[in-house]
Amino acid sequence: MGERNSEKSSKFPCVRYDSINKRWLVRIRRKGFQVCKYFQSKTLAERYYIETNARIEKNSFFIEDKKTTVAEAVRMYCDNYVKNVCKPTTLSSYTGYLKNHIEPFFKFRKLISISKNDCEMFKLHLTTKHKLVGNNFSNKIESAGTLSNETINKILKLLRAVFQYWVEAEQLAKNPMQSVKLLKINRPEADFLSTEKAKLLLMAAKNDVTCTRYGIEIGAYYTLLLTALTTGLRQGELLALKWDRINFETGYIVVNENYTHKEISTVKTQASKRYVFIPQYLQTELLKHKASLGNNPYNLVFPNREGNYIDGRNLTRRVLPRLLKQAHLEKIT
Description:
With about 325 residues, this protein is α+β, with helices and mostly antiparallel strands. The chain has 3 domains: about 10-55, Single alpha-helices involved in coiled-coils or other helix-helix interfaces (Up-down Bundle); about 70-170, DNA polymerase, domain 1 (Orthogonal Bundle); about 195-325, hpI Integrase, Chain A (Orthogonal Bundle), CATH 1.10.443. It is built from 11 helices and 12 strands. A 3-stranded antiparallel β-sheet has the order 1-2-3, with helices on one face. A hairpin with a 2-residue loop joins strand 10 (about 255-260) and strand 11. The termini are far apart. Mean pLDDT is about 85; it is low at about 135-145.
């Protein structure tokens, strides 16, 4: 038994066997350097640990990249990592952060030249009501709405991940973003609808009159709202829902897709893929809704009037506030 355990342990504290990945992990944090690397065998891991420690001691561990700019580093991180691992919506967000905030601020600055103070100045810049815009040769100040703390934190996290990517590639000695603190986010307390308020909202939705170029519609969003309140599906999951995902015989919905930022994708996590029970009264309303719809090219349960995906912003900014007002209810946070 003792021999078996010794096979999965090392005499070096920074070398250990990762039972999940079934590989040997070397994690070194010393003199400001951070290394995290996997190996197939214990021998290779321990050899790397000894050699790396020796190089850190001699100050000859890193061959730093002295040419790459911050903007180029972000692009390479997105091309080499984000495209392969993250969703298209994440890549789109990162591209926007680079174009609107990171590149205008750092311009031609080399990755190796960035200090913690530079990162703190960038953080301070993001909290102002203005942003730098322009091309590679000139910049100008343009008035802009204040970024939320949540958005600022996402930009800072991206920059931190980019620096760490270069550190782990052994082309950068330290991550200057490592000790830069994120902003505090004060989330409003969730305001849940009581049963009585939910009934009032549904009544308003059922009697809602919408005038469109296709004519007058009554209760256009009633079934969508009833489904949301009954099942607890997220907005993107509702907008992506297709008829072949509803099994009326078993009474379950299969939730595995999401629609946000005009992109259809899988749900955010594995745990989000699930079966949701639909009671008989909701099944009846969904079948009525299906009969009134006709066909649409994407087989959507809740399409817009052209048969395409509904814009979620239209729901949250126009439809829901209107229904809440008709029901004499306060805004939901």
